[in-house]
Structure prediction request, 200 residues.
Amino acid sequence: MDKIIPRYEFRAFAQNFGMVETKMRKLSKCEIIRESPEVYIVSAANNENNTKIRDIKMDIKELVEKKQGLERWNPRMKGEFPMQTDVIKNEVFQAFAVKEPDFVRDEYTLDQYLDELIIPHPELSAVKVFKRRFAFTINGCITEIAQLLINGAAIQTVAVELEDIDAILKAKEILGLTEYENVNYLLAIKRVIGMEPLPA
Prediction:
């Protein structure tokens, strides 16, 4: 199997990207449109592990590097529900870095996991995120603009990804993104739900 090389990523959030979106659509044909309802599990104790559930599959990514204003995330864990309690205890809750709840089952369905372990936990929140994503290629970089609903709050995000840092920085310049803050999904969601303060 080919070795997976994690990409560097720049991501920004705004109510509307205006000319950034105009430039994106002018420079590249929209290649893919995707829609998906997802659930992010955010922890008040951790900003380095991004936990997302789509359908019945869980994906945890770990922040491993920040370089030239970009971030690099590695896959930490992939799983599927129903999930064994040992996996939830030793892998999932280790990533949350919070006190473990009482586990009363040998395995958990997705609903049981959310209703019994996540929602009652004082340091965890299950956040519903609906995404409508439009994919482009800018300066050889994987680029997208997405319309989001985060617990019903409407916001947009733009992302530029590639293994090549210089190509991303050039794409940012082309699109007019140089003044935007790099904000990953985890931090953006926390800001929307009030778990992290908004920037000054």
User: Anything to note?
Assistant: The chain is about 25% helix and 45% strand. The domain at 8-193 is CATH 2.40.320.10 (Hypothetical Protein Pfu-838710-001). The first strand starts at residue 8 and ends at 14.
